# Entry
Amino acid sequence: MDRELSEKLYETYFMRVYSYVMTLCGNREQAEEITQETFFRAMNSSKEFEKRSDESTWLCAIAKNLFSDEMRRRRK
# Structure
């Protein structure tokens, strides 16, 4: 994904993804970390995005999976 497209994606969807993650975890620091990791993963795997859903749906799915992974790690 080129830099300009990455920046536009981040600017457009950051608050939506961050707000979603905040509803999942209720912790500002954790939400910030998961949101950053979400965009990092999205930008590195943009070729996998098949455009069958909205970009925000795709980003929130990544965020949800990251949150779930974090919760599993914490339980161990």
